[in-house]
Amino acid sequence: MHSEFAIEARGLSKQFGELRAVSSLDLKVPRGEIYGFLGPNGSGKSTTIRMLCGLLTPTAGTATVLDTDIPGNSKDLKPKIGYMTQKFSLFGDLTVFENLQFIAEIYSYPFADRSTRIDALLDRYDLAAMRKQLAGTMSGGERQRLALACAVLHHPELLLLDEPTSAVDPQSRRDFWENLFRLAGGGTTILVSTHYMDEAERCHRLAILDHGVKVADGTPQELQNRTGMNIVEVVADDPYAAQAAIHDLEAVASVTQLGVRLRVLIPESHDRPREIVENTLAAVNLKATTSLTAATLEDVFVAVTMKPRRSG
Amino acid sequence: MKSLYRIMAIVKKEVRQLRRDRLTFGMIVGLPVIQMLLFGYAINTDVRDLRTAVTNQAGTHLSRQFVAELRQTQVVDIVDFVETANDLEVLLRTGKISIGVVIPHDFDRRVSDHSRAAVQLLVDGTDPTMLGVANQLRTMPIGFDSARSTSDLPQVIEVRPFYNPERRSPVNIIPGLMGVILTMTMILFTAVAIVRERERGNLELLINTPLSSTELMVGKVIPYIVIGMLQLALILAVGRWLFDVPVRGSIVDLYLAASAFVAANLALGLLISTAATTQFQAMQMMVFVLLPSILLSGFMFPFDGMPTVAQYIGEILPNTHFIRLTRGIMLRDAALAELLPDLFYLIGFTLVAMFIAAMRFSKRLD
């Protein structure tokens, strides 16, 4: 049976002693897409990825990954997935070539095509010049390219990337995402965890995790369209004072300062959101202009991970 | 078949890493050689040339002849002649000599009178081996016309040192040292090799590949078995050239015994690696095994002379059994078939340690 989803999780949970790292997670990842896990540190991203590749046994719930049942015999699954760890986990005292060669041997890559494959990867990931360099002496971006090359060497159907860009510069991150899109274009399903908004925005689809609970999921566009919030942008002379004035309003869900601008989130249940803000500021003699804008992913993130405000 | 290739991949990687790790690589060769030189030359229970001073108050022909005889034993090296017994005590106290010989003025008469001692030895008792040596000197015949010495001082017990007639220390020490060196290097290398992988995060990568934990363990252990065998050859060669230590029994038996011993230590190393989270912890645990392996295995002190509790602990240690095997095979020309209990213990130890290590290891993956 060939499912249209690369990953399907049903009520997946993991308990570490007292800590509930992941709670009843439902997940559907379509094949050939880049699926993002967005969430702060400790939100259960890594734990979920580890359960999906059979490294950790779920406390409750099941998943089907590439038509293999979890929990179950993850042995058949391993040749079909590529995994990139959060921390660089290749061998620092082996050269770039030796690392790739080792991975090829471990995955029993067909001997006849081995060197062609390694050469192709060295070219593709711009590592050809560093072929004989020890992996331990490379920069963060270079290591990350090597790690990706090793993770995709055996043509995995599913690529699991655990915060792959946490230690690299912006340019390397852009190049890295170019590579991910190329892989997805070739039919590879990619599950990537991140805490960068701009990266989350590039995913075909994403789930936002908070304290082990999935608080929202969908395409970035869908998520931005259904925040349930009006976003009022305020440009004020004294943004700090303005923030203080608005912050405690009952109607205001959240205020974020971005330079001289404030982004004010007001639930859609309140009518005339601009007037609410303008009237409050006028009352304390603060000059400001307001406008309604579209939600960004950051607004979505703030809206869904917000703690419910005290009632009454 | 694929499994075999994966194990070979691990072996190849280990060897490459080992080759780049100068320190470890140096330890493989350097450690045995340095230890052999240290122990072989420095540890010498066969004491010779103790610094000695003499006060000869008799000054007779017989007393001078006695001093000459004393010198000939080579046990003492007479560095000084002084006037009084007090002078000897000063020299002893200041550590300038280890033995003082007092020849009283009535020496000639005392020699013929067997009820009284003819000579007094003042011995530095802070070192127990000195006393032993002095006791040896006590049996030295004084009388000098050979006919009398044999008849008047009949030797009650005759000691015939079997297997090491020259009583050379290296002959005793090197078979035991072999066990100590292999214990040290084998446990350390395996424990560190796996703990390092965990510390650096490599393990998280490896367990996500088709590689099984058994393949990983076997692949990691193979290079060190080879290294253990090379070290053994090195120790035997150095022992032969520098210290003339014989291998009287079969070299095949010796290598079989050593294989079992190396396997036992590697298994212990793997076990330690499942308990230690850092390389430093692994080393601490290695020392915990190493010290008893030196002190309680019969390497340093005769096993039978140890307190019962120490003997029990000693019986647990692989090195104790290996030392019995090596001394038997190398020095007493015993066949391995005659020493089976010790061999079986080593094999049993390996199996038990391996089993526990594998159980613990697979748990750690979850």
Could you explain the architecture of this structure?
The complex is a heterodimer of chains A (312) and B (366). With 312 residues, chain A is an alpha/beta fold. Chain A folds into two domains: 220 residues, 3-Layer(aba) Sandwich (Rossmann fold), CATH 3.40.50.300; 67 residues, Alpha-Beta Plaits (2-Layer Sandwich). Chain A has ten helices and 14 strands. In chain A, a hairpin with a 2-residue loop joins strand 4 and strand 5. Chain B folds into two domains: 228 residues, no CATH class; 103 residues, D-Maltodextrin-Binding Protein, domain 2 (3-Layer(aba) Sandwich), CATH 3.40.190. Helix content of chain B is 66%, strand content 6%. Chain B has a four-stranded mixed beta sheet, with helices on both faces. Chain B has 15 helices and four strands. At the A-B interface, helix 2 of A face helix 1 and helix 9 of B.
Summarize, please.
With 312 residues, chain A is α/β, with parallel strands linked by helices. Chain A has helices at 45-52, 96-106, 111-124, 140-152, 170-185, 197-202, 220-225, 239-247, 273-283, 297-305; strands at 5-16, 19-30, 34-38, 60-65, 68-70, 81-84, 158-162, 189-194, 205-210, 213-218, 229-236, 254-258, 261-267, 288-293. Chain B is 66% helix and 6% strand.
